[in-house]
Specification:
Structural class: alpha+beta
Number of helices: 4
Strand content: 5-15%
Number of strands: 4
């Protein structure tokens, strides 16, 4: 019995080492990838519920299934990508958008000249905003 356990342990170590070598230099998972996977799973479940309980046409099930598969393939692509800088930038952009959505104290405006995001306190009425990067002035309502 002990010799079988040792054989299995060696096989497991070899497979784990191979997987570690395969993943070297690849991006792996991050919060954006997990959100994409959860969204794909949710759409897959919605597609199944539409098929079972829905009075819609069967084409909707196909649409939900295809979109969910596309999202899952995108998540796998992001995980296995070797272009780590680009995946990191995508994740940073996702976090910026998430912060804009959840920030209740500030409004986020984009400079019309240099496209820099400028934060302005909410509830100040119409104000002239000066971009800190390029100095462009523009009028917005907060």
């Amino acid at each position: 019995m002990e010799e079988h356990r040792g054989w299995f342990r060696k096989l497991w170590d070899r497979l784990a080492g191979g997987f570690r070598r395969f993943m070297e230099g690849r991006y792996g998972t991050d919060r954006l990838t997990l959100v994409i996977l959860c969204l794909g799973t949710l759409l897959s479940l919605v597609g199944m519920l539409v098929q079972i309980y829905g009075s819609w046409s069967p084409a909707w099930n196909v649409v939900f299934t295809l979109i969910s598969y596309a999202l899952m393939v995108w998540a796998i692509f992001r995980t296995l990508s070797r272009n780590t800088y680009r995946r990191y930038r995508e994740n940073q952009r996702f976090h910026q958008i998430l912060e804009m959505i959840t920030d209740r104290k500030n409004r986020h405006f984009q400079c019309p000249k240099c496209k820099e995001i400028v934060l302005v306190p909410r509830g100040k009425g119409k104000i002239t905003i000066t971009c800190p990067k390029c100095g462009e002035k523009f009028l917005r309502k907060t």
